[in-house]
Amino acid sequence: MLVHKLLVDLAPPFVTAKSWSISDGRTGEILFGKCENDRREIASLTKIMTCFVVIQIVRKIRLNAQRTFLQVSKNSATVGGTSAKLRTGDVLSVWDLLHGLMLPSGNDAAITLAEHFGQYLFEVATRYKNSKPGGQAQPAGAATLKDASAGAAGATGGNTGAAAGGAGIGQGNANDIEN
User: Fold this and answer.
1) What's the structural domain count of the chain?
2) Which of 75, 128, 135, 141 is least crowded, fewest Cβ atoms below 10 Å from its Cβ?
3) Active site residues
4) Which pLDDT tens digit goes with each residue over 1-40?
């Protein structure tokens, strides 16, 4: 709790995003924030979950993320929005694609990962085709940054979650992926 007290006693960090929040991943308490209850598009949450799901698959099927390579499709390279600047035909490790997904919030990296790991999820899902999903993604969903921070903390194992309008990150131990 000493770390928590030290954080709360500090001045909030300078952040240029329209809205942002930092929460305690264990308690969900918002430590710092600006407009954290405003509703925002959830693209960053989708990317956090894409990262989380890919890491879980990598662990489950025991892939080496630094030695498993994927090729970028034309579909991935030409997707709009934020980008990791991937080009058609590029070959990158899963590790590098995860960084391209989370650091520049690359839609191109997200699509590349989804094209390759989505097939695995589809095959697993067909085994349970009689079960009904708890919810469906909405094409233009929205959430508050309080929700985003909680999602980021949950996806990273309860560490401090951070999110900003337009880009979100969750801090965790990226080295948990097999080297």
Assistant:
1) 2
2) 135
3) 44, 47, 105
4) 555 555 567 777 788 878 888 888 888 888 888 888 888 8
Q: Is 126 inside any structural domain?
A: yes
Query: Measuring CA to CA, which residue among 162, 160, 159, 154 is closest to residue 56?
Result: 154
Whether residue 47 is found in the same domain as residue 105 = yes
Residues 38 and 49 in one domain: no
124 token code pair:
């697993």
Q: Are 88 and 134 in contact (CB under 8 A)?
A: no
Three-class HEC string of 146-168: HHHHHHHHHHCCCCCEEEECCEE
How do residues 41-52 score in pLDDT, each as one tens digit? 777 888 999 999
Shared-domain flag, residues 84 and 32? no
The answer to which of 100-104, 115-119, 124-128 has the lowest mean pLDDT is: 124-128
Summarised one tens digit per residue, pLDDT across range 64-91 is 999 999 999 999 999 999 999 999 999 9
Bridge partners for 1 per DSSP:
none
Residue 28 lies in a domain: yes
> In which domain, by residue range, is 70 found?
43-132
